Amino acid sequence: MILDLFSGSGNATGIWQTAGYQVWRFDIVAPERPYTKPVDLNFKWQCDQIIKDVRKVCDRPLLIWASPPCQEYSDANQRRYDPLFIPDTTLWRNAQYIIDELKPEWHVIENVRGAQFTWGKPTQRHGPYYLWGNFPKFNIPGGVEPKHLESYKNKKERARKTAMIPLKLAVGLYRAIVTQKLLYPPQ
Q1: Which residues contact 11 (CB under 8 A, 6 or more apart)?
Q2: How does strand 129-134 pair with strand 106-111?
Q3: What is the pLDDT of residues 62-90, one digit of tens each?
Q4: Domains of the chain (ranges plus CATH)?
Q5: Most buried residue, 52, 106, 109, 124, by most Cβ within 10 Å?
Q6: How far apart are CA 99 and CA 47, in angstroms?
Q7: Spatial separation of the C-alpha atoms in residues 175 and 173, rounded to whole Å
Q8: Alpha-carbon distance 56 to 72, whole Å?
């Protein structure tokens, strides 16, 4: 089982679904997304419900991917430069709570460069995508394209497009995990 928290477009876990894995996606805008359950991870009781539902189906997920919204950490957030600004870490902490409770084999929390000021050095970085967690390191041949923010017509389109996880990133992680499972099968 694969869990995708703050799934957005579902790009981060699409490769897993294509490969036949059971993928559960959760997002606040779920009614707009197929195969996504509506949930607001600001509320701990909704996190507890996810944990309860997952435990009914499996002992331990293979992977939890979380991409909490980046507004609190983004360079575009002018409040971030105020020395008195304290980012709201609720969504990140609740994602970590789900990870801690379900103890997946692998987990990734993806966010932007500015998150380092709150969460410390990332485990790995691919272009503008910063990854924290427990996962095998991986390369992406040719790297990940920059986001080219100026190329979008309006703020809404830019926000939607830049929040999408690139297929190259998702495939890189998928290959690294599958390779690890082949090299070191469960005992």
Answers
A1: 164, 165, 166, 167, 170
A2: antiparallel
A3: 999 999 998 887 877 777 777 788 888 99
A4: 2-183 (3.40.50.150)
A5: 109
A6: 10
A7: 5
A8: 34
As a residue count, the chain comes to: 187
Tokens 């939607």 sit on residue? 160
Summarize pLDDT for 161-181 with one digit per residue, the tens: 667 899 999 999 999 999 987
Cα separations in angstroms, 65 against 24, 51, 83: 10, 14, 31
What distance in Å separates the CA atoms of residue 116 and residue 113, rounded to the nearest whole number? 6
Contacts of 148 (CB under 8 A, 6+ apart): none
How distant, in Å, are the alpha carbons of 46, 49, 99, 119, 171 from that of 176? 31, 30, 20, 24, 9
